[in-house]
Structure prediction request, 291 residues.
Amino acid sequence: MILKMNFWEHNMILIDGKKISEEILGEVKKEIETLPFQPVFCDVLVGHDFASEKYVKMKAQVAERIGMKFQNASFPESITNKELVQEIEELNKVENMCGIIVQLPLPSSLDTRIVLDAINPSFDVDALGNENSRKFYAGEKSLGLPTALACMYILESLRLDLNNLNIVVLGQGELVGKPVSALLTQKGYKHVTLRSKTENKDDILKNADVIISGIGRGAYIKGDMIKKGAVIIDAGTSESGAGLVGDVDLESVREVAGCVSPVPGGVGPVTVAMLFRNVLEVAKNINKNSE
Prediction:
């Protein structure tokens, strides 16, 4: 259990995403140790974007720490669609491969959709390929989008009675708003998704007990926009002069919000843990089918 308390009787609580992530990864590591083979994970990197290189290196370190083998797949920015698709098709054949993702954004010279769909759907642990995306939104058993899974995991770890709370999803992006709304619907939780054209948007937000935000507008949510004790899962990220910031203005909401996942250190680390939990699921399926 991560947290169990009445937020309305406390000062604002910051959710420790790193701690939650370590707990999940600890469980993943234990399960990997029971497998008769070492799962392989691959993060495809094209070009030399500093932030992308940093993320790939971090995921490589996490993979090796929990007992997975990291498959290096770095390609020059000059690579063509056809060449990259061929490289991914070769990665699909690697022995004990259990997860392939493509570090986004890709250079503008490449077709992201074609590249993502080159990944064998069985190994598409980011769930961004057409087949896994279709299954996910149809409610069929499939690998979920890690960021959306992370938002739901954090929310459910708070042990709130979500059936009796006003839940608002801010934004309808492909990585957060849209899949989070789908997961809430699939779990039977009533919610409202706020779009730019939604009427009475300010009133709906002000009455929300839970806000899940993924609009990528730095420090957009202020204290006067939310109700006392609101729980905010901040999955929005944007760059500022001070580095990475979330959708929530932490200083502004400090005296009003009950509980907030900060950026960085909130949803981000849990998203990485959910990614590797997806890789584990693939490995378990491969092991089950080989018995």
Q: What stands out?
A: Residues 1-10 have pLDDT under 50 and may be disordered. The longest strand covers residues 40-46.
